[in-house]
Every structure is written in C-alpha cells, then in structure tokens.
Amino acid sequence: MPTTYFLGYRLKIGIVVIVIMVLGFFNESQGTAHYGEDSVGSFPYFEYNVPRNVTTVVGQTAFLHCRVEQLGDKAVSWIRKRDLHILTAGILTYTSDQRFQVIRPDKSENWTLQIKFPQERDAGIYECQVNTEPKMSLAFQLNVVEAKAHILGPADLYVKTGSALSLTCILSQGPHDLGTIFWYKGSNIIEYKEVEGNEIAMEPRIRLKTEWTEQLTSRLTIEKLMPGDSGNYSCVPTMAEAASVNVHVINGEHPAAMQHGNANTASPCALSVNLLISLYCTIATLYTSTIDGFR
C-alpha cells in the first residue's frame, strides 16, 4: 500500500511538471511570435508597406509617408540626408524653409513630410527617424523632374487655306499622373465639341483627342482652315512647362515648313525645287535685260 501511494504521488508530480513545461513552452512561443511581429514587445517599428521612391515634377507638392507603429512616448523626426538638417521633430518644424511641414492627423501612426513647390535641388534622400536607443531610421528617395511639353514639327508652320491642320503635343517625362493638356490660341483657350458615337451631327471643324500610352499625347485637328486661324498655338499641360508653335494660313505655296495632310514636317524637296525655279527666273531676267541693253 505505501509503495502504491508513493508511485501515485510521483505520477501526480510528474504530470504537474509536464503541464508546467507545456505552459512555459506555449508562453515562450507566444512571446517569440509577438517579438517578430512588433520588433520587441511594445517597441516602435516602421510599416514598410509605403512608397519609398517618390517622383514628382517641379512645382507639384510632394508627400513622403512614414508610418510608425507603437510609438509610445518616442518622437518622430524628418532629416535631410545630404546636410543632416533636422526638418521636423514631432509636429514642430525646425527649418526656416516654410515649404517643409509634417502632417500628422490626431492619434494617427502616419507622419507625412510635405514639401511644397519642390525644385530639382530638393531631390535626394530623406530619413524618418525615431529617437530610440539605438536610433531607428527609414530612408525615402525623392526625385524631382522638370517636365516639358513638346509639339512635333517646326516652330513656324505654313498651311494652305482650306486644308487641315494637325498639331501633336507630347509629354513623357514626370510621374505617371501627368494631369491633362489644354490648347490655347494666343491667350484664349480653344473650345471644341465632342460628338458622341450615337449622335447624328456634322463632323466638328475643331477636334481634340488626348490619350495616355507610354506618354501623354494630345492631338489638335482643325479642318477647313481660314486666314483667321493663323496665330500662336500653345499646348499647356497642368503639370509641365508649355510648348507653342506659330501657324500661318496662306493662299499659296510657301518655300518652307508647309504642312501636307497631317504631317508637321517641312518638305526639303519642295524647298529645293522652289529655289531652282527662283534662280532660273533671276538668270533669265538678267539675260533678257542684257540683250535688250545691246539692242
């Protein structure tokens, strides 16, 4: 009987030890998973699922989004890497350049650096830092590009009265969102009418088509040109520098920069022929004058 009691007691002790070991292992596993998830328990950590290579165009406000989880009593700062200048600390700005500002909604984990009217000199690396020990930092690359529109063809274009004018404006540099393009004649925006597919109407004289493929392309077409259509035509993007071309509507041929059909290029052959004809006429006139003088 004592032996049986002793064995039963040892069995109970063994079960208790096993249970304690299992519980300890479970708690340790829970702690390890928690550590991997948020770095060190309640220690701050960065959210990496944010854009860290940001491109903007000159003059378009740029935003660098830094998200810090479990910040606690720590503070977030933004540093410009090239000169280690502290731009912001907490919600305060530590630079005289008023274009820089931190945006942080109440009780939010987002600390966004806003840069108004960025210039090409603002491009570079910016660091989002947390004053832990050791210091935590996350780098962001800002690219600032000068976007400029380009109109295909010469700067001065000569077109026959009654023919069609086609101008193509291209904008390829800059971020994916390049806005849209407006066309102006002088200082007046060009009005045009879009005809729906099921609408029965005469084809409009002025048409405009803007599309995005690998670049932003806008095509302005004016049918049945009149002398009053002469002037300066400008392609004005919402997020880039404008481009312009001078259009001359004439009654006859011009030796250069004539637009044939929908092409915006000059005709070297036409130019050469016109020059030869002019030279021939000049020589013939001189010859005739010389003969008349001898008579």
UniProtKB/TrEMBL annotation:
<dbReference type="Pfam" id="PF13927">
    <property type="entry name" value="Ig_3"/>
</dbReference>
<dbReference type="Pfam" id="PF07686">
    <property type="entry name" value="V-set"/>
</dbReference>
<feature type="transmembrane region" description="Helical">
    <location>
        <begin position="6"/>
        <end position="26"/>
    </location>
</feature>
<keyword id="KW-0418">Kinase</keyword>
<feature type="domain" description="Ig-like">
    <location>
        <begin position="134"/>
        <end position="246"/>
    </location>
</feature>
<keyword id="KW-0808">Transferase</keyword>
<dbReference type="GO" id="GO:0032589">
    <property type="term" value="C:neuron projection membrane"/>
</dbReference>
<keyword id="KW-0675">Receptor</keyword>
<feature type="domain" description="Ig-like">
    <location>
        <begin position="44"/>
        <end position="131"/>
    </location>
</feature>
<dbReference type="InterPro" id="IPR007110">
    <property type="entry name" value="Ig-like_dom"/>
</dbReference>
<dbReference type="InterPro" id="IPR036179">
    <property type="entry name" value="Ig-like_dom_sf"/>
</dbReference>
<dbReference type="InterPro" id="IPR013106">
    <property type="entry name" value="Ig_V-set"/>
</dbReference>
<keyword id="KW-0812">Transmembrane</keyword>
<dbReference type="InterPro" id="IPR013783">
    <property type="entry name" value="Ig-like_fold"/>
</dbReference>
<dbReference type="InterPro" id="IPR003599">
    <property type="entry name" value="Ig_sub"/>
</dbReference>
<dbReference type="InterPro" id="IPR037448">
    <property type="entry name" value="Zig-8"/>
</dbReference>
<protein>
    <submittedName>
        <fullName>Tyrosine-protein kinase receptor TYRO3</fullName>
    </submittedName>
</protein>
<keyword id="KW-0472">Membrane</keyword>
<dbReference type="InterPro" id="IPR003598">
    <property type="entry name" value="Ig_sub2"/>
</dbReference>
<dbReference type="GO" id="GO:0050808">
    <property type="term" value="P:synapse organization"/>
</dbReference>
<keyword id="KW-1133">Transmembrane helix</keyword>
<dbReference type="GO" id="GO:0016301">
    <property type="term" value="F:kinase activity"/>
</dbReference>
